[in-house]
Automatic annotation (TrEMBL):
Protein name, as recorded: Glycerol-3-phosphate dehydrogenase [NAD(P)+]
Domain annotation Glycerol-3-phosphate dehydrogenase NAD-dependent C-terminal: ranges: 171-302
The organism of origin for this protein: [Roseibacterium] beibuensis
Protein residues bound to NADPH: 13, 33, 99, 131, 246, 264, 267
Family classification: Belongs to the NAD-dependent glycerol-3-phosphate dehydrogenase family.
SUPFAM superfamilies, A to Z: 6-phosphogluconate dehydrogenase C-terminal domain-like, NAD(P)-binding Rossmann-fold domains
Pfam family of the protein (one): NAD_Gly3P_dh_C
Enzyme class (EC, first level): oxidoreductase
Annotated catalytic residues: 182 (proton acceptor)
Pathway membership, UniProt: Membrane lipid metabolism; glycerophospholipid metabolism
Amino acid sequence: MSAPLMIYGAGAFGTALAITYANAGHPVTLWAREGAEAMQKARENIRRLPGAPFPAGLTVTDDPATDAEIALLALPTQSLGEFLSTHRPGAPNLVSCAKGIDRATGLFPTALIAQAAPGTTPAQLTGPSFAVDIARGLPTALTLACADDALGEALQHALSTPALRLYRTTDVTGAELGGALKNVIAIAAGAVIGAGLGDSARAALIARGFAEMARVARAAGAREETLTGLSGLGDLILTCGSEKSRNFRFGVALAHGETLAEDVTVEGLHTARQIASDPALDTPIADAVAAMADGRLDLATVLDTLLSRPLKPE
C-alpha cells in the first residue's frame, strides 16, 4: 500500500488530487473547512468538483490533525497564511499546491509554510493542470520544486502516479514565479479574447508575456530555464487558452465590464498588483492588468499605451 497522504483544502484542485491519489492506492484524508460531513456522505464534492466520485480510500474530515508523512496544502494563496496561523500541519513533509503571492506579506507559498513550520523544507507542486483532468485520471505532468534535492527526489517518487508524472527542480523561486506570473498573462489573454481582438493578438500577448515573466525571474535570481518548463511556459500555454482557467475568465469578464462570482479566487489579480507596485521591474502587461482591474485605465487606453511603446529588437 502507498503512503498515507493528508490534503488540506477541498477546493477543486485539492479534491482532484485526493481522488487521483486514492485511485493510485494511497489512503487519503481530505480536510475541508466546511461541508466535510456532507461530502463524506455524498462521496462527491458536489459544489467544487461535481461528477467526480470519491474512491473507497478517500476520507473527508474537518479535523486538521494528521499522522501522515506527507501533507499537501491545496489552499488558495490568500487563505494559506491564515490557515497556517491557526493550524500547524503535523506532517514532517509539507508540499504547497498554491500559486501566487500573499498580498498581506508579499511572500510566496513555500516561504509562508517555512515561516509557520521552522525546520521544515517545504516543496512546491505546480504546473499545467486543470482539476477536472486530474480527477478523471487524464495524463498530466507537473513540476515538484524543492531546495533539498534528495527530499525532492523522495517526494517525486512518492507523489507520482501512472497518470500524474512529476519532474523535479531545486529552483523553488523559478517554479513559484512561473505559477504566479502565468496567471497575470492569462488575465490579459482573456481580455484580448473578450475584446474580440483575435487569436493572433493573443499569440503576440502570450509571447511578450513570457518575455515579461523571464525578466521578472532574472530579477528575482531564478533560473531562466525553469520558466521554459512545465511551471512556466507549460502553465502559460494552458491558462491562456482555456475558459477552464479562472484567470482567463476574469480577463474576459474584465473586457466586458463584468466580474466573476465573489467566491472565485483570481490569484493573478493579486500577483499583478504586487508586480506592478515594483518600479524597478519592466512589466507593462502586469501594470496594465492591475490598472484595468482597479479602474484606473480602460481597455482602449491600455491598448493604445501598449501599441505605442517604442519599437525595439526582440
